[in-house]
Specification:
Layout: H1 12-19, H2 23-29, H3 34-48, E1 52-58, E2 73-80, E3 83-90, H4 95-114
Antiparallel strand pairs: 1-2, 2-3
Length: 115
């Protein structure tokens, strides 16, 4: 199987319920953080019984976070063979553009990590 499951978790509650992200991490670091992205990737692995996962969490815009994090900030995590890799990117553009760039970046990085 190449693609077995996908999860869309916009709210903190969905991240906690579906991907087992800890409330403490959300409160301490915010939903758009390295810690939460890593927990999302690990939760997706466990929930989907998969070998590889990608997690993306960010502010597509037009507004950023309440903590001052600008729109276009996106955290990524990849969980592969028991290892979690993370990265942050800052994209410019409207929400649709940020989303497209984030997906492209996540997939390109996945290929690089697998090779």
């Amino acid at each position: 199987k190449f693609y077995g499951a996908g999860f869309v978790t916009f709210t903190d509650q969905a991240k906690m319920k579906i991907l087992s992200v800890s409330q403490q991490s959300l409160e301490r670091y915010s939903a758009v953080s390295e810690k939460v992205a890593a927990e999302m990737a690990t939760g997706a692995i466990e929930r989907a019984d998969a070998d590889v996962s990608i997690a993306i969490t960010g502010y597509g815009g037009p507004e950023g976070g309440e903590d001052g994090t600008p729109a276009g900030t996106v955290w990524f995590a990849w969980h592969i063979k028991g290892q979690t890799y993370t990265a942050v990117m800052h994209f410019a553009g409207d929400c649709e553009t940020v989303l497209a760039l984030a997906v492209r970046f996540a997939l390109v990085q996945l290929l690089q990590l697998l090779l």
